[in-house]
Records
---
Amino acid sequence: MENPKKVAYANQAAAIIKKLNARQMEGYYCEDVAAAKAKLLELIGGGKKSVAYGGSMTIDENGFKAAVTEAGHELIIRENYKTPEELKECKAKQINADCFLLSTNAITLDGELINIDGRGNRVCYLMYGPDSVVVIAGMNKVVANVDDGIRRVRTQAVPPNCVRLSCDTPCAKTGKCAECIPNSICANIVITRKSMVPNRIKVILIGETLGY
């Protein structure tokens, strides 16, 4: 008998992909990370492309950056840019990249992407700039609706991120959102309802538990 969880993931992903298509976004389902890497390279396309990325434990922990470089693409490594002048150069490269990679904090059953960001240097390129955007997310990010998505981000994604980033916030200590302002990384809440440029945003859903 097939793994019931995997079957449920595939069925759920198929329904979400239909909703994504209606929102002018492309959706794909991959059973595991290996298949997702292959799909990512397929979506980036042939020839040498410039590829930027936003902060994502899903991407960092599962070898997606290495897959991009091993395929011969130019990965814009933002951590290499330090001075104000270099950071300005990096921003210019990112907004003009052929492809931008990120995950999503949550995705609804109706195909909406939910992200909470600090400076907005991740969500800004989701909304505008690079010719192609690829969102990579485990099925653990799926939620019923936008309210559940925001709740998920605040209770499951933000607290460990605040611990990782050494932020002095209540949620880093208690795991519970306190609607704080000082030191908060929850500055921008972005709900992506559709892609204004048809099929610019591609979403790879993976049948595993990944990231925060």
Note: The two ends are 30 Å apart (CA to CA).
---
Amino acid sequence: MSRVIGIDLGTSNSAAAIMEGGRPSMIPSAEGTSVGGKAFPSYVAFTEDGQLLVGEPARRQAVTNPDGTIKNIKRKMGTDHKVKIRGKE
């Protein structure tokens, strides 16, 4: 049987849930409970050594890696805006 997943792409935090037994069940972030409950920060980062970071780890390093961090991108979705990081679009 296939599963249904719902994704809430928030400006500050995002969340995901699946249907189990006819009821939605939140998928917790890998970092555990955050300020937003099971939600995780809407951040994505690429480090200089090529790591991809998502959520809380990306948010934590945003101050030291501002050029490699994407945040507040939801406001640009649906437009022709492009993000270029470390030479990649």
Note: Residues 35 and 41 are 9 Å apart (CA to CA).
---
Amino acid sequence: MKGRDFLKLLDFTPEEITKLIDLAAELKAQKKAGIPHKLCQGKNIALIFEKTSTRTRCSFEVAAYDLGMGVTYLDPTGSQIGKKESIADTARVLASIYDGIEYRGFGQEIVEELAKYASVPVWNGLTNEFHPTQILADMLTIREQFGRLQGINFVYMGDARYNMGNSLMVGCAKLGLNFTACCPEKYFPNKALIAQCQEIAKETGAVLRFETDPGVAVENADVIYTDVWVSMGEPAEVWRERIEELSPYQVNTALMAATGKKETVFMHCLPAFHDMKTTIGKEMGEKFNITAMEVTDEVFESSQSIVFQEAENRMHTIKAVMAATLQQRDNARRP
């Protein structure tokens, strides 16, 4: 993987994805044991964040420091990308200074264009369409919990049209997990992407399902996963529609019990509206007379919840991606 970009899991084989998870597990064990692993000593990376984030920024920065690298963080006010300077020009300038570039922001076409013109690896920290570093962390977490990925019954509850639903479906198809999206039909993933994942699933043994009935969807589930109902950047007026249409798909104690398995775990990419202790949560709770949204506090704080193990694994898997792609700089790989 030396010199390669990490833009979406569709670009990688199951074997390559598994190697990244294996490397993440190895680097995690070394960190826990206090063994230094400065595999990228002396390199420098740029982090472009058009959308802010707690986990993604902290994970990239700590992972980079552990690998021996310097980091420059560019927030929405710290870069002229797409405003005063084209994406292509930004890519070429940053590639002449840095050894790798991370982008977290809007359309997938932006990170793809960065990668096209940069002569160093470009990593996708999140776009509207895909969130590949999150899925690596999710898969490492599931493997730690169950000892395997193949054949795990994975259910995603809620809006499956965007980066998390898309990426989890791709990740499950690639690695042989049985994926179910449970939501109203209008929230199902893109049909073209479903068809692409169905073809991948034929090779890996994964089964993909799309259900509207929560009780049917979660039967025999090993993992129940959800995400916020309204994403960053969406207008305030969508809250009422999402709360009304997705409330039947809330992850609560009854839904967890409906799996028929005590071993079922709950996962969430965070942040989560499991209580009303945030500014937005308090505002929406008062406005719509609710105390939780996509997951109840009882489930979020239960012994079945592995969300903080999952959050920690963001750093270990991001570290693996950077270590794997930065071992060699190839300035001649693109025109």
Note: The longest strand covers residues 44-49.
---
Amino acid sequence: MKVLVTGVAGFIGFFVGQRLLERGDEVVGLDNLNEYYDVKLKYARLALIESHPSFRFLKLDLEDNDGIAGLFEQERFDRVVHVAAQAGVRYSMENPRAYIDSNIVGTLNVLEGCRHHGIEHLVYASSSSVYGANTDMPFSIHQNVDHPLSLYAASKKSNELMAHTYSNLYGIPTTGLRFFTVYGPYGRPDMALFKFTKNIIEGKPIDVYNYGNHRRDFTYIDDIVEGVVRILDRVAEPDPGWDSDAPDPGASMAPYRIYNIGNSQPVELMRYIEVLEKCLGRKAERRLLPMQPGDVPDTYADVTDLSDDIGYCPSTSVEEGVARFVEWYREFYAIDS
């Protein structure tokens, strides 16, 4: 297939693009290479795939209406993996317009491209953050998600609603993926594991929010990518059993689906830090702080639908995943043990 991967220089987009190339697909990768975090890491990811004969890279902003329209017109993609977004819960309180521009306007442009050019399947990134104020664990796609706690979460819920509208009006098969705390090599420097590792190695304290009373469904990058690719291959279809008198938020009469992709084994944050300390061979100085605005105490994915429909469940343990990250971090930043 010929696949557009948006955000291809980002954490998830890079690994998805790499996986698609390895199996023989043609990939056109789009990214604006913004400076939300160190662009050197983005270029390092690109360097690993840019020489592949079936890969082409285009630097372009998602909110460039004419640019995105022209890209779809010229390339004639079969399918699209849309994982480009302005990420980060806390940053959404500092720079809210970035989330509207990238996540709302940008996604609209992708949907319009799919609408006008017969895209077979659009798979796009949502987030576990859409569960917001929900406390009924584990989080299920069949739960209502109308109480977001950050603009980032609201933008991701908006993406799901926009996708459903296009699936309903124009018959575009769309599948949204709610990712749960993704980590691993080449991960984002604004995520906890990256920050913790850097500070522990440098002998600096780590900020532990909610006084460490968090549980997170940490999901290793390889498990995320496996789920994305399998779902890309399974084109969304209408649910014949969907009932308008009792509407199920996780399905539709349109060719629209939603899945959680999480490890479904939430880990205490303090346990996560202990695993990291063991891998680094160093203890962390912990600075215990209150919970941050927009944050949630716990995340826990119900992946029943992913398992039933796709036949897949993430399974990498935090012990294995954190060890792989630390190995990569030491090599990438040339740090001796």
Note: The chain has eleven helices and 13 strands.
